[in-house]
Each structure stands twice: as structure tokens, then as C-alpha cells.
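PROTOCOL LOG
Step 1. Enter all chains and additional molecules of the complex.
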Amino acid sequence: MHIPDGFLNVATAATTYAASTGGISYAVKEVNKNLKEKQVPLMGVLAAFIFAAQMLNFQVIGGTSGHLIGAALAAILLGPWAAVLIMTCVLIAQCLIFQDGGLLALGANIFNMAFIASFSAYFIYKLFTSLFGDNKKGRLIGGVVGAWASVLLASIACAIELAISGTSPWQVVLPAMGGIHALIGIGEAIITGAALSLVMVARADLLQPQKA
Amino acid sequence: MKWKWWYFALILSVLLAVLSPLASSSPDGLERVAEDKGFIEKADSAPFQVIADYVFPGIENEALATILAGIIGTAVIFGVVYGLAWLIRSRRSAQAE
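Step 2. Run joint prediction.
Step 3. Record the structure below.
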């Protein structure tokens, strides 16, 4: 759901740029305080994995495809602030090198896929691990539900920006974006669940409780 | 050099990039909505192109051009984020001393 240039009006693009820029500088401070040494390579490989996985569009229905966002996996493994930085780097590279997502829309794309997706997945994951216990089951359910919801909520944020910009009416763009991304989110849930299962088998120590 | 767990994760990411020509070329969720609801023509193309649409320029075989773009992107992202994380962390230790 990388927004190209031309879909957002100046006010929306500027507002989301400002919000994202402020959020990123706070994220740098949080990561500076909390990142452990063993998490430094994890940040690099997660970003590489997310970038590569985002290239692999999977078929949904009716000639539509979707791809992983990856914010949920990053937020669960490293906390939401580190996830924001990872997603921001991926989105900037996609915009500058691969012309995926517009330059003027970059602030909105970071707002949706770095902030909204990371934090929604993280809080849902936390909710489920407190409900079901911080064990394999709770983590997997929380991760899967959080991943699905992160795609849906990011797409809703995207739809709201399109509607505010006057690109498409609210009653049209909200259900259309929400509907198709509720399906694409199933892919996000499956990939996130599989990746989490792998991490829990191979490196369970990476999944220690994170502070927000 | 000791073999570390995250080497596997990095190799897996590069393998994913190699598989990228197999990806669905259908429009994604936002593009689908933009086409169906009639606002796709509002999209402006980028003012400059580097490796536009994940196809490395000047290579005739499109699968190969996509794989190359994917490997370059994966390597660049890994380097940038690893470096950034290291930098952010190292500034703390400098302050603590």
C-alpha cells in the first residue's frame, strides 16, 4: 500500500511528514536507551528480510496481490520503536532507490506502515500475551492477530488520508481499502506466525518481554 | 570467524530476493482500489528513476534484472540498518563513559 505521489494533497502530505519526522526522532532516543548489543544484527537482518519479503507479492483474489508489511514481526521481536526505525529505513530505500511510494507521500507511507502498523501489532500482541500468558501459545496468537490487524489498520489510515485529500470519497475508499486489506492481512498473519514459530524454536531468547 | 545464527537469516533473505521473479504481478490492494474507484490516473510518476519497479536497468532478461535489484536492495538495507543500529547504540556507550 505504498502511496504514489499525486494521491495526497499538500496538507495531508505535510502533516504526515511532520508527524513521522517527530516520531522518528523519538524512536532514535528510545532505541538508543533500550537496544541490546545482540539486537544490533537482528535489526539489520530483520530489515533485509522485510525488504526481500515485500518483493514477493502473493495473489489474493480477483487479480489483486498483496505483500508482507513486516512491521508486526519487527515490533514483536524488537519492540515498536526499533520496528519504526527498521520500517522507516525500508520505506526510504524503496522510495529513493526503487521508486516504490512517492517522495511527497513518504511521510504518509512511514506514518501508516511504520507507526500505525508497528504500534497496533505491538499492543495487540501485548494484550494477548497478558490474556493467554507470555508463553508459546499467547505469543503465537497475539502475533497472528496483531499482524492481521496491523495491515487492516494501516490500510484504514491510508484510506483516511486519501479521503481527506479528496482523492476518493470516504464511503467509497474506506470499505474498499479495509475489505481488500482484511484479506491481504491473512497473508501477513501466516508469514508472521511462521516466522515467530521459527524464532521460538531456534532463538527463543530473542523473544524476551520488551518495553514499549 | 564464528558462525552466527543471524547469518542464516541473512542467507534466507537473499534467497527470498532470488525468488522475487515468482511474485504475483497483479496490482496490490491500493492499486486495485485506485483502479476500481477511478483515481489511479492521479498517480504521478517519480521525478527520477534509479532501479524503478525493482527491475535493474539495462538487463534484457527481466527475471535476472529483478533478482539483481532484490539482492542489491537486501544488501543495502542490511548494511544501512545494521550500521544505523550500531551507531545509535555506540553513542550511548560514549555518553556513559
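Step 4. Note key features.
Residues 10-207 of chain A form a domain with the Arp2/3 complex 21 kDa subunit ARPC3 fold (CATH 1.10.1760.20).
Chain A has one domain: 10-207.
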